[in-house]
Every structure is written in structure tokens, then in C-alpha cells.
């Protein structure tokens, strides 16, 4: 019965996958909030406008950090802007995010973070106390990570031209020779690990905005991931294929980026993904998927199958990694796609969103 | 999650799927329509299709509140949002629905003050916090969401909030079902009835479906076991030669609905003579507007909106998808011209839209057993 119909359906699906495999085009008339959400709209901006404009081999890799050869050694460089609202939320502040976020991007390249620069954009009228609090948070986070802030800049803009404060940080690290990481290393059979539970940060910030009148005991997971990466490199360095931190767009976006870049398929087991019960509850009420919610202290590690157990043990022994889990594996088909084996026993695609996750209506 | 996980139990799911397999007559093809977009979403999200025999086909119905909004209404909404000083509020899903010249999200980027709300009460709160600015709530949805709009308007009136207005796009569920059942190109064996709507209207309004059109229907909840259970109930009806309305979702849906919700709706709203549905044209007595007593809060009276009927883009087949005549992937522009990134039709926007659900969740070859 399904033969002819499913052939036609398959043809349509193939056309879509071919289109998805191509570099995204940037065709929008103006920037909307969706371009900043880390989903497909962001992807079209990066792949369609920025990468072609600055065309070079390093950038084309589109990793969390780019690598540069300096005097015979290889360093990793990255930069990030932080514009979170509110600037203080349960479990963290914009200052901590600015330090940890950039250090984590360096670490994801398999590089030991060495130094940060810091640029502050401040809104006229910002209370000095607020600024002091953030500066202290920045200092504390940098000290805890053991990464000095070696240069900086400050700018002030008129009231209303920014929301309290924005922070940009740039990070420098030296590539660690225990590993060589790239999405192109991925092979069918590789195991997919996550360093802890998903969705805490995004949920904490969403609830802190007070738009949903929901209260839950959720705190941001912002933390420096270098110790976990360091432990992982010690345990299974040569078997490590690739690392990505699951920030904006959540774990789902990162997995899709990796699947697209490496042309492997990924199958994730929903029941194995660690989620805080309160995050699961809030997501349920709002009709969003924790896999699409931002994290600030979680990463995906893809390792050769024989190293998976050791990698998991290393992750679990690192600070904040108690709930690390093996959540899936790479396969051959369907190429470039991420599938979710649902806890109920079915299967579905797990795609990136276009923009921010939007709450359902009813 | 207590009271939720029980309805997502994979062991029970497998058992129920086994029973469904036993109820299916080999060689016969069954086509059931899930009326509600919430069901479409659940079916894809949990991969319920995977547990059904291949000869049980689920087709998607017209019950997605965002999907049924015609382009002209989006244009009217955008025009309202651009009025001086107006704060325009709507549910998140609406923001990405294309009008004839862009979406509300585009209008926001152009400078209109558009804010996403989670409930109409949030919109009222914004109105009270900004007493010198008019706040318009773009109301959409079936009888599920209409009572909350009605209560909000009632409260605004009671509290004397004079800067709160509503652009009413609420619709009712029975007229489109009738239109659907009257259309000659549809062959269905039964309906999975809309659970959330029924919490308000009850089960009785669906009695005409077996009585006049001879199709069985089971009003169902939204958890995966609910959907499987409803399919089980419909197949059992067919096998036993019965044809009636059954209530699978009795833990939430009373037979008579929610009389207080219906009461407040009848106070605040009245039926429009006709309302345009995306891809389905004008359906008489299918839309609600604010009643005489609430006319001073009617945004369409307070402001002049263009009110121009905009024909759907030629390539768009949302109408056929909403009527279950074609599957999302059978649409000429599905996945090529029309994607979640760049939707042409409404069905590709809302998470409850059949095309978006299929594109985001269902877009891969499934292998199922043929009986």
C-alpha cells in the first residue's frame, strides 16, 4: 500500500534535505529578533552574509573559536557579546556570563584559555553600584577560571541606547596537543555525550523576566567548562572528535550544526537527556522543548565508541558534571539530520528553530 | 511529572498499539482526522505515527488557531500596530504569520511597539501600566481561548480601563467542521475530536457528526496515550457497527462543557454573519466579534483598519491542508518555497500547523507495518 505514495513523499524529503545541506542564504530585508536567537535565522546571517564576506579557511570551519598559527604554535581566538536582560538572574549575572561564555568557546576548540579582553558599553544613568557589582562578578569569575583580563575598553551611550550594559569579551587560548577537534572527525558509531542537564539557564532567565508568572527553583548553569574539558582530554584526548557548548538555540541547534557539517545522522534518546524536573515542568507549560533552551555551562562531546565510558566517567568527575550522560549516537542515515527517539517509543526529527522558542497558544 | 508521565508510558503505549493492530481489518485503509492542531503537534512530537499500523492514516484538520487567520486580517493587525502610540499585543505564534507585506515581527523591527503576551490578562496589565497609550490585543483562537479574552474584557470594563482594545479574530469550531463534512472531495472514517475546545463547549455540539454525517468521533486529550486511546475507541465503534460521540477526555471534558465560560462568551461576543478562513473562504456564523455592550473596546471600531480581503498566494495550498484534502508534503511549495524560515502559508508557522509539525518533526521516512 505505501509504495507509490512513500516514493513521492521520499522525493519531496530528498529535495528538502538537499536544500538544507546547502549554505543558508541571507535574504531578509531587515534584522529581526529572530536573527539573534541562535537558530536558523542566525545561521542564515552567519553563513549567508558574514562568512562569505570575510572568506577565509579558519572562519569557514565555523567553530566556537578560530585557530591561528603564531610563531610555530597554534592559538585559538574567539569573541562574544553579552546583552542579557535582566543583567542579574538566579544563579548568575551578565558579568559571569561574559567571562565564562568566552572561556568556554576557547575550551571547545580544545584550547587552554590564557587571557581575556573586556569591553563595556554602559548606558547613561547606570547606577555605579550596579556597575560595581558586575565588575566584581567579572573579576571573581576570571579569578576562579584562572584567566586574567589583560586589556579592556569602556564606552558610554545615551540613555535608551542600550539596556543598562552590554559586555564584549575576547578570549585567547593555546591549542592543547592531547586532541585534534573538528566536526569533520565525526563517524557513524561515535557516541554523543552531554556534560549535564539541559535548559537551566534559558529557563532561569525566562522566569526572571517575570512575563509568565511562573516561579520555580531554577538557577542558571553558567560556569567555566575548561576543568571538564581538561579532564576529558586527560582521559580520552585522542578519541575525542569534537566539542560544542550548547548555548543559544540549545543542545538541538548544536547537534544540528554538527550533523550538517559532518553529514552524519544523529539519533538522540529522549529518555536519556538529563532535564531538571522544574525545567521540564516549565517547558511543558510553555510548550517549548528543553533541547531548544539555552545553556551557559553545558557542552556536547562526541567521542569514539570505545572511549565513551571513560569519557563519561571523566565528565562526571569534573565539577558540575555529576549528571553528564550519553544521550545518543552518530549513524549513517538520514544524512545530516538529527532524530529523536521519543520516550514514548516513536521517532521524530529534532530540528533547529527559526528564532526564539515561542510559547504555544493553547 | 506527575499526572503527565502516566499518559506517556511507553509500555502502555505499546500494549495499546498492539490492541489497535488487532482491531484493524487487514487490507482496509482507515482515514481519521484529528481536528485540533494540538493533536497534530502531539502526534508528530511523540512519534505516535510510528506506533500505528500503516493502513491507519491520520489527516490533519482545521483546528489550528493561527493557521486559519487569513492574510487580510494580518494586514489589519499590522496596520493597527503602526497607529500612533499603540502598543500591540498578541500571542507569540502570530508574530511570524506573513501578511501581504511582511509579518508582525517585521513591523516590530520597523518600529511598531509589538509585544508578545502569554495571556490576554498580560495585555490588560500592559494597558494599566501605560494609561496614556492605547493597548490593542489581537485575539485569536477557538472556544478554547475565547473565554479568557471575554473575561479580560469584562474585567477591563469593570475596572474602567479605557485604553484597552481588542481586535477579535475568535472563531467557532462547529461551522468549519460542517463545511468540511459538506465538501465532496473528502473521505474520512472518523474524527479525533478537539479536547481543549470541548472543555468549553462540551461534547454535545459534535453529536451532528454521527447523526447527520454518519462518522464516529472520540473527543480526545493531548497526551500520546490519549490519542492512541481515541483511535482505539473509533476502531471499536467501527468494528461493533456503532457510530456515536464518545468522550475519551472525560477526566477534563464534561459532556455539557463549561456553562460559566459559555455564559461569559455570550455576554461579551456575538456571532459575525460570516468570517473569512484561510484557504476555506467565508464561512457563515463562524467568527465572533465584540457585542454591543463592549463596542467601545472594539479595536475595529476605534480605529479604521484597511479591511481589505487579500487572496492567498497562488502557490499556497493551506486550504487543502486545513481540510485534510492533501498532506503537507503534497503541497507544491512545501519545503521549497515554503519553510519555517520563510513561510508562505500559515500552516508552516504555528507549532500546531500541520506543515510546521510535519517539517519540524516528521520529515523522514518511517517504516511501518502494513496489515
Short description:
Chain A is an alpha+beta fold and 362 residues long.
SSE ordering of chain A: HHHEEEEHEHEEEHHEHEHEHEEE
- What is the helix/strand order of chain B? HEHEHEHEHEHEHEHHEHEHEEEEHHH
Binned strand content of chain B: 15-25%
Compute the gyration radius of chain B: what is it? 21 Å
Main sheet strand line-up of chain B: 2-1-7-8-9
The CATH top-level class label of the largest domain in chain A: Alpha Beta
The class by helix and strand makeup of chain A works out as: alpha+beta
Structural class computed from helices and strand pairing of chain B = alpha/beta
Mean pLDDT of chain B: 93
Tell me what you see in this structure.
The complex is a heterodimer of chains A (362) and B (371). By secondary structure, chain A is an alpha+beta fold. In chain A, 34% of the residues lie in helices and 24% in strands. Chain A is built from ten helices and 14 strands. In chain A, helix 4 (94-108) packs parallel to helix 5 and helix 7 runs antiparallel to helix 10 (308-317). Chain A is globular. Chain B has 371 residues and is an alpha/beta fold. Chain B is built from 14 helices and 13 strands. Chain B has helices at residues 10-23, 37-45, 71-81, 104-109, 120-129, 146-158, 174-182, 195-201, 208-213, 224-239, 259-268, 299-302, 318-322, 354-362, and strands spanning 30-36, 56-63, 87-90, 113-116, 135-141, 164-170, 190-193, 217-219, 245-247, 269-271, 274-277, 281-284, 288-290. In chain B, the strands form four sheets. Chain B has a five-stranded parallel β-sheet with strand order 2-1-7-8-9. In chain B, strands 4-3-5-6 form a four-stranded parallel β-sheet, sandwiched between helices. Chain B starts with 9 loop residues before the first helix and ends in a 9-residue tail after the last helix. The relative contact order of chain B is 0.17. The mean pLDDT of chain B is 93. Classes of the chains: A alpha+beta (362), B alpha/beta (371). Chains A and B meet through helix 1, helix 2, helix 9, strand 13 and strand 14 of A and helix 1, helix 2, helix 4 and helix 14 of B.
Amino acid at each position: 500500500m505505501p509504495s507509490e505514495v512513500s516514493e513521492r513523499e521520499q522525493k519531496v524529503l530528498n529535495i528538502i534535505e538537499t536544500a538544507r545541506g546547502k549554505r543558508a542564504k541571507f535574504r531578509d530585508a531587515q534584522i529581526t529578533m529572530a536573527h539573534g536567537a541562535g537558530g536558523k535565522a542566525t545561521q542564515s546571517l552567519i553563513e549567508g552574509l558574514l562568512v562569505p564576506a570575510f572568506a577565509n579557511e579558519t572562519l569557514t570551519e565555523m567553530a566556537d573559536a578560530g585557530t591561528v598559527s603564531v610563531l610555530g604554535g597554534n592559538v585559538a581566538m574567539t569573541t562574544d557579546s553579552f546583552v542579557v536582560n535582566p543583567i542579574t538572574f538566579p544563579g548568575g549575572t551578565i558579568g559571569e556570563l561574559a567571562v565564562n561564555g568566552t572561556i568556554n568557546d576557547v575550551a571547545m576548540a580544545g584550547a587552554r584559555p590564557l587571557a581575556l579582553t573586556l569591553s563595556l558599553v554602559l548606558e547613561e544613568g547606570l547606577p555605579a553600584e550596579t556597575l560595581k557589582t558586575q565588575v566584581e562578578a567579572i573579576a571573581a569569575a576570571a579569578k576562579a577560571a584562572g584567566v586574567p583580563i589583560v586589556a579592556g575598553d569602556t564606552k558610554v551611550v545615551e540613555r535608551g541606547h542600550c539596556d543598562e550594559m552590554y559586555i564584549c569579551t575576547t578570549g585567547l587560548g593555546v591549542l592543547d596537543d592531547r586532541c585534534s577537534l573538528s566536526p569533520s572527525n565525526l563517524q557513524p558509531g561515535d557516541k554523543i555525550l552531554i556534560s549535564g542537564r539541559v535548559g537551566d539557564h534559558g529557563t532561569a532567565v525566562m522566569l526572571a523576566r517575570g512575563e509568565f508568572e511562573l516561579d520555580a527553583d531554577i538557577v542558571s548553569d553558567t560556569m567555566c567548562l575548561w576543568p571538564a574539558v581538561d579532564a576529558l582530554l586527560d582521559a580520552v584526548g585522542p578519541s575525542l572528535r569534537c566539542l560544542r557548548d550548547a548555548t543559544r538555540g540549545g543542545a538541538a541547534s548544536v547537534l544540528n550544526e554538527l550533523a550538517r557539517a559532518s553529514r552524519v545522522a544523529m539519533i538522540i534518546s529522549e529518555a536519556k537527556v538529563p532535564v531538571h524536573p522544574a525545567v521540564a515542568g516549565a517547558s511543558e507549560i510553555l510548550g517549548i522543548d528543553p533541547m531548544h533552551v539555552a545553556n551557559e555551562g553545558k557542552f556536547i562531546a562526541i567521542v569514539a565508541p570505545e572511549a565513551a565510558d571513560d569519557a563519561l566517567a571523566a565528565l562526571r568527575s569534573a565539577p558540575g558534571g555529576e549528571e553528564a550522560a550519553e544521550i545518543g549516537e552518530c549513524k549513517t542515515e538520514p544524512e545530516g539530520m538529527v532524530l529523536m527517539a521519543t520516550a514514548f517509543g516513536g521517532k521524530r526529527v529534532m530540528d533547529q528553530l527559526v528564532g526564539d522558542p515561542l510559547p504555544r497558544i493553547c | 511529572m506527575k499526572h503527565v508521565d502516566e499518559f506517556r508510558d511507553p509500555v502502555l503505549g505499546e500494549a495499546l498499539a498492539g490492541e489497535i493492530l488487532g482491531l484493524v481489518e487487514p487490507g482496509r485503509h482507515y482515514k481519521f482526522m484529528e481536528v485540533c492542531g494540538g493533536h497534530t503537534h502531539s502526534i508528530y512530537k511523540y512519534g505516535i505515527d510510528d506506533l500505528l499500523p500503516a493502513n491507519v492514516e491520520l489527516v490533519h484538520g482545521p483546528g489550528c488557531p493561527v493557521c486559519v487567520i487569513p492574510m487580510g486580517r494580518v494586514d489589519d493587525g499590522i496596520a493597527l500596530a503602526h497607529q500612533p502610540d499603540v502598543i500591540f499585543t498578541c500571542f507569540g505564534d502570530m508574530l511570524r504569520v506573513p501578511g501581504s507585506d511582511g509579518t508582525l515581527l517585521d513591523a516590530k523591527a520597523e518600529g511598531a511597539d509589538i509585544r508578545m503576551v502569554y495571556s490576554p490578562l498580560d495585555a490588560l496589565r500592559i494597558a494599566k501600566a501605560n494609561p496614556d497609550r492605547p493597548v490593542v490585543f489581537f485575539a485569536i483562537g477557538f472556544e478554547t481561548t475565547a473565554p479568557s479574552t471575554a473575561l479580560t474584557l469584562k474585567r477591563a470594563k469593570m475596572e474602567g480601563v479605557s485604553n484597552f482594545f481588542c481586535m477579535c479574530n475568535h472563531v467557532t469550531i462547529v461551522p468549519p467542521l460542517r463545511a468540511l463534512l459538506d465538501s465532496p472531495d473528502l473521505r474520512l472514517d472518523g474524527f479525533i475530536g478537539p479536547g481543549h475546545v470541548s472543555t468549553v463547549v462540551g461534547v454535545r455540539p459534535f453529536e451532528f457528526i454521527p447523526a447527520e454525517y454518519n462518522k464516529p468521533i472520540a473527543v480526545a486529550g493531548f497526551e500520546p496515550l490519549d490519542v492512541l486511546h481515541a483511535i482505539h475507541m473509533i476502531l471499536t465503534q467501527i468494528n461493533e457497527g456503532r457510530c456515536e460521540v464518545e468522550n475519551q477526555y472525560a477526566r477534563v471534558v464534561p459532556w455539557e462543557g463549561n456553562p460559566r465560560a459559555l455564559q461569559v462568551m455570550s455576554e461579551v461576543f456575538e456571532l459575525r454573519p460570516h468570517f473569512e478562513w484561510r484557504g476555506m473562504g467565508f464561512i457563515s456564523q463562524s467568527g465572533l466579534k465584540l457585542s454591543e455592550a463592549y463596542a467601545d473596546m472594539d479595536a475595529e471600531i476605534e480605529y479604521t483598519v484597511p479591511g481589505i480581503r487579500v487572496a492567498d498566494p497562488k502557490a499556497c495550498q493551506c486550504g487543502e491542508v486545513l481540510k485534510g484534502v492533501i498532506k503537507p508534503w503534497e503541497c507544491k511549495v512545501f519545503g521549497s518555497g515554503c519553510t519555517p524560515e520563510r513561510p508562505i502559508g500559515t500552516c508552516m508557522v504555528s507549532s500546531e500547523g500541520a506543515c510546521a509539525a510535519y517539517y519540524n518533526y516528521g520529515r523522514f521516512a518511517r517504516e511501518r507495518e502494513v496489515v
